[in-house]
Automatic annotation (TrEMBL):
InterPro entries: Cyt_c-like_dom, Cyt_c-like_dom_sf, Cyt_c_1A/1B. The keyword Heme applies. PANTHER family: CYTOCHROME C (PTHR11961). This is C-type cytochrome. Keywords: Electron transport, Heme, Iron, Metal-binding, Transport. Pfam families: Cytochrom_C. Residues 56-158, 186-287 form the Cytochrome c domain.
Amino acid sequence: MDSFDWNRLAVAGLFSVCVLAASWGIGSVIIQNQTPIKSIFATNDDQNKSIDLTSADISKGKELAAQQCSLCHTFNQDGINKIGPNLYNIMGHQIASKPNFNYSGSLKKHNKETWDVKNLNIWLAHPMNFASDTIMAYPGVPSQQDRIDIIAYLKSISPTASAPMTEKKNIPLLEKHQGSVFEKQSNLSQGKEEYQQYCAVCHSDTIEGNTKLGPNLYNIVNKPIASQSNYTYSGALKIKKMNWTESNLDQWIENPQQWAPGNKMNYKGVSSADIRKNIILYLYSLSPQDKH
């Protein structure tokens, strides 16, 4: 091997050393020794506690819901189920209880809970942290303020959000106190008209009234639920071992399927609290057993 060959080998070796040194230098700059970054979707403390809605911007929440949620959900009162269920009146609603929607198994495990602020916050942060096999293929909303705004908007379209889901204290509709809406005779007349509009197609209301699609409602107030012998009730009502108090009537008229899931009354309910009060006042006037 002559001197020319030795020179070539020396140059090649020097070039290799330079390449290795340059690679090490560049790598040490680009790939530094860092602590792994925590995922923004990990469930942390602020996602696990109830959040304060006082800072919420409902208008922004509505915009965010339209941008991020409307592909799969509707928000209007009679909105259809899409890929996900309709979200009108979702706040305070029992989880996985919307009729005619097929929920995932892990979401059904939460059906003893309601969609309160805390649960909505965890769900919106990362649905799979709340229900591991959910069919909602959505990564979540990482910004807590955005979640606050969306939750406030959902609350604004949830008329029953502030109402407890358990049975309310029974306060007689005709209790006399100053300013009571029930002292106004006009409401009783309105109640009769609204009963005819919302209820009469399925129910009679006279002392000898016939059973129609539903039972006769004469003398219904404070009567045991599912107790008329000439009517076949659904199992969902038979298990209600209580009376038709004003509170129970109000919840039933508002949303029959929410109050007794699986009953055979195919009716969406009456969303207006004033109309429900008027109808119940009219039923009260037909219930002599309840008058003292």
